[in-house]
Inverse folding.
């Protein structure tokens, strides 16, 4: 009997539920000093002067440094694709470009002293024109980087086929905003650095990618990678925004080097809302065409991506949007063009889905608009256009190759679980009676790319003479449950108890290599590497067992029920893992295997989400009644962890559809820099989800598994969004931009009632 | 998110607190549940020189029934009011409202007195107590005085207490046959109301209160007069926005808030049997 596919309880949880985790800020670091950052209060200004005289004179203040003191290079371009002139400096250099940009760093004996000193640093600004709207930024009227001569940070233009829609009977268009959101991990950014006794830099980081942090520190601080030791203790969430290194991390390392004292930094929530990268932030224009019978023939999306103030990872999100342009549909002709621009706002970055939710949001929204245009049920329109299960591998018009899927099965199951026909009947009843609370039903069929980056992953398995198994992985979990899942994989191969397995991650001295955890890659590449290492260690053990049992190697079998090796047919004479490990140790050749697994390529999970909402047509308030999620991530190793990913993903997707938005005023002042103003979702806003999995194993990797980390977000957002728009469609509302807050929904209803058919429900 | 430095005294009696307030004047602030004051201090929007912690004064945490009113100690926490058998049976509206403030953490720390004295027009309790015609009892160096709810809320975050006074009790009249309705529109359950409305009706009296429709919590006398002259809920609610000056922000324009006020007042009146 296999342990895989069972609801094994999370091995991580007893600690979190009793004594709690240990985060960077919890680490004892005797003799440490604290840093805090002087941050810009202006969105765009020349920095005339930074006067820290009074701060430096305060008791307990060690130093105040600006970018000139650091003398470090700027960050490099992203994958060589972004405009070089727009790379971020460590600290602001001459010009500040967003509220919250670090200008100087204060080092003090305590955090409290550092905060007091902050009030004593006087920054004199010479204001410059603020560019906050990406549409305006694209006109290049006011420039963030005059030397660059443009605000464009990156662009992608494929196709441009003038005849794309020529054969279509029906063509509809939609302009929509995929709004800027804040990732809001419960643990904010935090780092602690010290020069260790051996002269190396020891750096504790709240990150998704410890080896990336190690390499960046080495590069910027002029060290060799082996002179830097990065450790990640427990990490309280990242959602993509902690996949990259931030200037503050480097500055903390620099301060430890410079002062020879342990240095620690933990940002406040208000700082985090400005300093941690934001997600999404696309303005989209989409066009779809097809026949009146509901055959979609052509689709084009134009993306305007907001980079924020510098060209960081967010700048290249449209690259991933392009990959997923045509979604789960068989559309003969599809194109994606994009332009990324800088604006005076927090730089954008990866956030749960990173470019793919934006693609899904666009096509799923316009599928509904198209369905309405030809008066067809949106489920039926989708059914007619989904890629068939016999069409795989399927190459899309934007040259993405989908591995495998059964998209119709997911749609049918979701409709069945939802009781779709009954829901439509109830909706019709409420519409007929003019109920003040209208029902909305929204669908989203999605497909997305996981393990989309080319990195491979490291995995190692060692059996010790005491029978314990040590697993090392290059992935860096921060809530995902790799300790449990990797234990299951190794227990399955070795036939040992899960409790005898220890999984080690997030220490660059113990784990030599690793790409980290992001992009829904971990199981299919990191888990697969560990699985392969386990297979290899079994093979090694068979060699040892053959010697000890004086038998032919080909006759040795592993009894996975008890973890003993024996000669086939004579189980009474056997050797345990511990015995073999002891023999191996005596030979000076530990029972150990390590693997650097090259990426076999991406996989494409898919599914259908259906959301049911009730809209109070008098106030515009939306109440989410039900959310049905059918997801297919290939073979499910741990249903418990997979469900957990779907649950969390749905919550974040619902949040974007209904509530969350980072808002700036026209002067670039953030209006949502606390969790009182930023509508972070809570359990009270969410119903119990109805989740189902279908399992279509992928041939791409040995586990048959696809990623599940981001599907919940990608699938849920358009379903909820479509449900809200559906609830008021009969009132003449064509579209409402996210988040569908009460004021926006009410404005849309009101505009429709007063005859403005293009009602979009702006503020 | 780190407050400026301050002195801190944990008092053993109400008189000790009043003495410290008299001595330190505007520089001193009372600390009760801390759910309004401490966030302001963390953002350094408030920097009191002295915090007078009245948390130990458990004698100010109670719900008792007097002849004409329910007496609630100023330090009674929202959770205790929401779950008190006495509140539930004698002024169920108050229990209902207290049970919807913020989230469970807020309700277990925040106090009725703190909520009132903070003077935030977006808070629920002030408008409700206004509609109920409550009386507030304040104690100062020269003894106690009673303040009508209608005279208590002076302007935005400003109430009628002098710097050396301590609110000790809230007296809530409640006719036995009263019907009521309470409606608030929020984006999230834990949020302050975008707009809220309360209606209480008993025999020939009616009280209608509005949350977040101006610099102070409001009592809508025009709606009350309409009800008393025989208007139905929908008719009376048309007067709800008259004279209001709500703020505009990304949660709602002035026109939207005024519209919602009319909707919520109508619904509250309907629930109150109008």
């Amino acid at each position: 009997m296999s342990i895989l596919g069972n609801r094994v309880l999370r091995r991580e949880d007893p600690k979190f539920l009793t004594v709690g985790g240990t985060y960077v800020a919890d680490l004892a670091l005797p003799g440490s000093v604290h840093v805090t950052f002087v941050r810009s209060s202006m969105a765009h200004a020349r920095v005339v002067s930074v006067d820290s005289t009074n701060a430096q004179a305060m008791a307990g203040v060690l130093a105040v440094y600006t970018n000139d003191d650091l003398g470090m290079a700027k960050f490099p371009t992203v994958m060589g694709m972004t405009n070089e002139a727009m790379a971020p400096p460590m600290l602001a250099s001459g010009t500040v470009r967003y509220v919250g940009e670090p200008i100087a760093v204060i080092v003090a004996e305590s955090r409290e002293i550092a905060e007091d000193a902050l009030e004593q640093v006087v920054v004199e600004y010479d204001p410059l024109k603020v560019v906050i709207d990406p549409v305006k930024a694209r006109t290049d009227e006011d420039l963030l980087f005059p030397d660059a001569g443009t605000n464009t940070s990156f662009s992608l233009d494929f196709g441009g086929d003038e005849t794309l829609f020529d054969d279509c009977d029906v063509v509809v268009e939609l302009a929509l905003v995929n709004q800027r959101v804040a990732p809001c991990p419960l643990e904010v950014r935090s780092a602690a650095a010290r020069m260790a006794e051996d002269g190396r830099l020891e750096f504790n980081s709240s990150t998704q990618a410890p080896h990336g942090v190690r390499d960046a520190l080495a590069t910027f601080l002029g060290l060799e990678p082996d002179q830097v030791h990065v450790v990640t203790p427990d990490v309280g969430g990242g959602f993509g925004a902690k996949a990259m290194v931030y200037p503050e991390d480097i500055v903390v390392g620099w301060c430890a080097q410079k002062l020879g004292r342990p240095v620690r930094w933990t940002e406040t929530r208000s700082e985090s809302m400005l300093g941690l990268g934001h997600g999404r932030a696309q303005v989209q224009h989409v066009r779809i065409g097809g026949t009146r019978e509901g055959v979609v023939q052509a689709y084009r999306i134009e993306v305007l991506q907001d980079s924020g103030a510098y060209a960081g990872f967010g700048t290249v999100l449209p690259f991933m949007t392009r990959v997923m342009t045509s979604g789960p549909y068989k559309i003969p002709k599809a194109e994606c063009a994009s332009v990324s621009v800088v604006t005076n706002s927090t730089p954008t970055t990866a956030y749960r889905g990173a470019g793919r939710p934006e693609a899904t949001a666009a096509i799923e929204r316009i599928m509904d608009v198209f369905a309405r245009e030809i008066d067809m049920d949106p489920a039926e329109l989708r059914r007619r256009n989904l890629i068939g299960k016999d069409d795989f591998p399927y190459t899309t018009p934007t040259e993405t190759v989908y591995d495998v899927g059964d998209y119709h099965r997911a749609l049918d199951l979701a409709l069945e679980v939802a009781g779709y026909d009954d829901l439509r009947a109830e909706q019709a009843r409420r519409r007929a009676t003019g109920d003040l609370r209208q029902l909305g039903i929204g669908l989203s069929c999605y497909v997305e790319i996981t393990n989309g980056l080319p990195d491979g992953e490291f995995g190692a398995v060692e059996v010790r003479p005491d029978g314990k198994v040590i697993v090392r992985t290059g992935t860096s979990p921060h809530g995902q449950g790799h300790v449990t899942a990797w234990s299951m994989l190794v227990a399955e191969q070795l036939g040992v108890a899960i409790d005898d397995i220890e999984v080690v991650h997030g220490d660059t001295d113990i784990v030599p290599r690793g790409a980290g955890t992001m992009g829904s890659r971990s199981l299919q590449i990191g888990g697969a590497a560990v699985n392969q290492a386990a297979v290899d260690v079994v093979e090694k053990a068979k060699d040892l067992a053959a010697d000890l049992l004086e038998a032919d190697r080909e006759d040795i079998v592993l009894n996975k029920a008890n973890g003993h090796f024996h000669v086939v047919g004579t189980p009474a004479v056997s050797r345990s893992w511990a015995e073999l490990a002891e023999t191996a140790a005596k030979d000076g050749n530990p029972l150990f295997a390590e693997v650097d697994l090259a990426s076999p390529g991406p996989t494409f999970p898919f599914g259908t989400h259906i959301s049911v909402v009730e809209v109070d047509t008098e106030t515009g308030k939306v109440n989410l009644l039900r959310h049905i999620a059918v997801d297919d991530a290939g073979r499910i190793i741990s249903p418990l962890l997979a469900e957990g990913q779907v649950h969390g993903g749905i919550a974040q997707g619902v949040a974007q559809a209904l509530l969350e938005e980072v808002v700036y005023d026209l002067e670039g002042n953030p209006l949502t820099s606390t969790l009182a103003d930023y509508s972070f979702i809570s359990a009270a806003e969410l119903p119990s989800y109805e989740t189902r999995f279908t399992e279509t194993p992928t041939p791409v990797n040995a586990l048959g598994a696809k990623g599940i980390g981001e599907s919940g977000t990608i699938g849920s957002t358009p379903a909820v969004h479509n449900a809200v728009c559906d609830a008021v469609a009969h009132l003449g509302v064509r579209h409402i931009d996210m988040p569908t807050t009460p004021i926006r929904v009410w404005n849309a209803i009101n505009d429709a009632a007063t005859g403005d058919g293009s009602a979009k429900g702006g503020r | 998110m780190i407050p400026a430095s301050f002195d801190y005294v944990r008092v053993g009696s109400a008189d000790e607190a009043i003495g410290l307030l008299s001595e330190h004047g505007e520089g001193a602030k009372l600390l009760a549940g801390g759910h309004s004051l401490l966030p302001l201090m963390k953002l350094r929007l408030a920097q009191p020189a002295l915090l007078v912690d009245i948390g130990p004064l458990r004698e100010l945490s109670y719900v008792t029934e007097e002849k004409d009113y329910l007496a609630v100690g100023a330090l009674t926490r929202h959770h205790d009011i929401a779950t008190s058998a006495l509140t539930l049976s004698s002024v169920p509206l108050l229990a209902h409202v207290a049970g919807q403030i913020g989230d469970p953490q807020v309700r277990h720390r925040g106090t009725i007195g703190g909520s009132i004295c903070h003077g935030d027009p977006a808070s629920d309790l002030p408008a409700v107590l206004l509609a109920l015609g409550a009386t507030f009892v304040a104690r100062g160096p020269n003894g106690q005085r009673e303040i009508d709810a209608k005279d208590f809320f002076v302007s935005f975050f400003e109430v009628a207490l002098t710097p050396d006074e301590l609110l000790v009790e809230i007296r809530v009249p409640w006719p036995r046959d009263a019907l009521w309705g309470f409606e608030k529109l929020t984006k999230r359950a834990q949020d302050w109301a975008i707009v809220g409305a309360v209606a209480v009706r008993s025999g020939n009296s009616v009280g209608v209160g509005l949350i977040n429709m101006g610099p102070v919590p409001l009592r809508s006398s025009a709606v009350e007069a309409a009800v008393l002259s025989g208007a139905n809920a929908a008719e009376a609610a048309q007067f709800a926005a008259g004279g209001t000056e709500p703020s505009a922000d990304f949660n709602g324009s002035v026109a939207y808030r005024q519209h919602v006020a009319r909707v919520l007042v109508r619904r509250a009146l309907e629930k109150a049997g109008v």
